[in-house]
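Annotators were shown the component list below and the corresponding predicted structure, then asked to write short factual statements about the assembly.
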Amino acid sequence: MIWPFQKLVGMPRVAAIEHPFGRPYGDVGDAETQMAVLRAALAVFDSAKAPGHVEHLPFTWHEEPKETKWHPAEPSPIIALMKKRREKS
Amino acid sequence: MTTRQVDPWRFAGRFLENVLSGSIPDEPAYAEIPWTPVQKPLSESKLALLSTAGISMKGDKPFDMEGERKRPTWGDPSWRALRSDATCATIESNHLHIDTGYIERDLNVALPLDRLRELVGSGEVGSMADTHYSIMGFQGADSSVLENESAPEIARSMVAEQVDLVLLAPV
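Structure shown to annotators:
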C-alpha cells in the first residue's frame, strides 16, 4: 500500500499498512490476521479526529520482500511502456 | 495504535520506487478533504466494503483488461456491485497490476466479507450492507470518469442502503 497516494487524493481517514500489493488484509487462509487488520482499520473511525488523519498500523508481513510474490505474470501495460521508454532514452 | 511509520515502498521494488517516490506531493491535491463525523457506535453501524482489485460477480461484465492493454495509460473507470454472499467461486478479479491468484483463492485477502460477517455475528459491527463494491485501482492519466460518475453512483447506492461506514482497501 502506497499510503502517500491515499493522502494525496484526500482520503479523510487512512489506515496505512505494510502488506504486499493484492493482500491488504492478510494472506490466503490467515483469518486471524485478516480479522486483526479489519478490526484495526475499523478502530481508525474512532481514533481519527480530523480530516487527513494517517494512522500507521503495526502489522509486519510474514515474508521478506524478496520472498514475497505479488507481481502479475506479465508486467502491467504501463510498466512495460515505461521500461520500453527508459531503454530507448 | 500509533507505531513506526509504514514504509510505502517496502514491497514496491526498486523500479516503482524510483519512478514514483519523488513524484507524490506531501500535501493533498484538494484544498478541502471531505469529513463526515462518525454518527453512531460501530456496534450500531452498517458497514460496506470497497476494493480496488477489479472484482466482479461472475456473469457480470468484467473489468476491461483488453482496453488497458491497447491503451496502457487508461484504466477502466467503471464500478461493480458485489453481493454480500460473494465467494471465490462467484467472483472474478481482473487487474493487470497484481497477482490476482490470491484473491481468487481467498477473497478475504482484499474483501473480507467472511471476517465482517463474523464481526456482525459477535455484535462488534451492527450489520453489513447487502451490496459491496469494486473499482479498478489503476486509472492511468485521467481519473475524471471515476471521480465524477462512478464514485457518485457508488455513494448513491450506499446512501440508498443506509450504509454508515465504508472501508476502501486499495490493493
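Statements collected:
1. Strands of chain B lie at 46-51, 55-57, 79-83, 91-93, 127-128, 131-135, 165-169.
2. The CA atoms of residues 55 and 93 of chain B lie 4 Å apart.
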